[in-house]
Amino acid sequence: MPTQQHIQGDGVQLNVITRGNPDNSAIVLVHGYPDNQHVWNGVAAQLAENWFVVTYDVRGAGLSDRPARSRDYRISLLANDLEAVVDAVLPHRPFHLVGHDWGSIQSWESVTGGPLQARILSYTTLSGPCLDHVGHWLRSRLRRPTPRRAGQLLRQLASSWYIGAFHLPWLAPVVWENLLGKRWHRYLKATESIDAGEPNPHQREDGRDGIRLYRANVLQRLLRPRVRYAHCPVQLIVAARDRYVGAQLFEGLEDWVPALYRREIEASHWSPLSQPDVIADFIDTFAHAVASSKAGSNLEAFRVKFGLSPRTSAPVRKPVS
């Protein structure tokens, strides 16, 4: 049975749920926008058979506190919240980390720096790039605008139109309050072919307050990207039909992630909802490979099984013409 508790984060109370045997190795799942931790229910239920699974509502979502100022949603504070959760639930223990959408964006902060680096055994990222990496990706395409790179840039800008809308003073919050909040489950069904079950009772607030994630972080990180290298094996799961986070954003990720393992799934953006069985299996397989690797042998077998390049562990790519 899931166990619920409230934990003190960096100036906020966070709603945390744990599943499975606490003596098992741990996996922490971090949700994105405009969701709360219940987006992981299907995945977490399966992982809990063999793992101790931790999920929580990030600040501004679900039953966690909702700061009113955008500056209180900075990625550095979100990373402090993650640290507070694992320190409370998994004191001094290592764990495997998984993030989706903004849960992935914020988790890159801990994977590439900070006090949790030594405790994160592996990282699985779904539909959420590191904003610093994206900043460097944008710069490289603006400095060397080949036809191919210009096409990539234009495609991603078209997919990310909503980010500009989120920075307008009042439009997005009003739309969430009066339109999307009541119809989000219908939107997922119509556009993503996802039946999310019972509507999220916090959907209006989750969508409205989570807008501050974009306002507090996106422009700052894209305009002044830092050098951020991962310090653990990373599994990148790319959803082939993701209409928000294009696969082109992950080109060159192997430059930042020495041990990168890329998997692809025929799914839309909300793969944890549409294909929880597949996502749980990907996470379980990768975490077991990392946990049981001896001198890299199991990770090498993982690499070979899924057709990954032995040098960079990114998929073997054809030369660019």
Concise account of the structure shown:
The protein has eleven helices and eight strands. It is of the alpha/beta class.
Q: Main traits of this protein?
A:
321 residues; alpha/beta; Rossmann fold; 8-stranded mixed β-sheet; 8 strands
Give structural notes.
There is one protein chain. The C terminus is likely disordered. An eight-stranded mixed sheet has the order 1-2-4-3-5-6-7-8, with helices on both faces. It has one domain: Rossmann fold (3-Layer(aba) Sandwich). The radius of gyration is 19 Å and the shape is globular. With 321 residues, the protein is α/β, with parallel strands linked by helices.
Q: Number of DSSP helices?
A: 11
Global structural class: alpha/beta
The overall average pLDDT, rounded, is 91
Order of helices and strands: EEEHEHEHEHHHHHEEHHH
CATH class: Alpha Beta
Specify the helix fraction band: 40-55%
CATH T-level fold name: Rossmann fold
Distance between the termini: 55 Å
**Strand content bin:** 5-15%
Biggest sheet, in brief? 8 strands, mixed
Net shape? globular
Query: Rg from C-alpha positions?
Result: 19 Å
CATH architecture: 3-Layer(aba) Sandwich
Order of strands, widest sheet: 1-2-4-3-5-6-7-8
Write the layout of secondary structure elements.
Elements: E1 3-8, E2 13-19, E3 26-30, H1 41-47, E4 52-56, H2 75-89, E5 95-100, H3 102-111, E6 120-126, H4 131-143, H5 147-159, H6 161-166, H7 171-192, H8 203-223, E7 234-239, E8 260-265, H9 271-274, H10 276-291, H11 297-305
Parallel strand pairs: 3-4, 3-5, 5-6, 6-7, 7-8
Antiparallel strand pairs: 1-2, 2-4
Helix pairs in contact: 1-10, 2-3, 4-8, 7-8
